[in-house]
Design goal:
Distance between the termini: 42 Å
Number of helices: 1
Largest sheet: none
Structural class: mainly alpha
Number of strands: 0
Radius of gyration: 13 Å
C-alpha cells in the first residue's frame, strides 16, 4: 500500500509538472 501511494504521488507530481510547463508555454506564446 505504501508503494502504491508513492507511485500515485509521483504520478500526480509529474502531471502537475507537465501542467505547469503547458501553462508556461501558453504564457510565453
Amino acid at each position: 500500500k505504501r508503494l502504491i501511494s508513492l507511485l500515485c504521488d509521483s504520478y500526480l507530481t509529474l502531471a502537475n509538472l507537465s501542467y505547469s510547463i503547458k501553462v508556461v508555454e501558453w504564457e510565453w506564446v
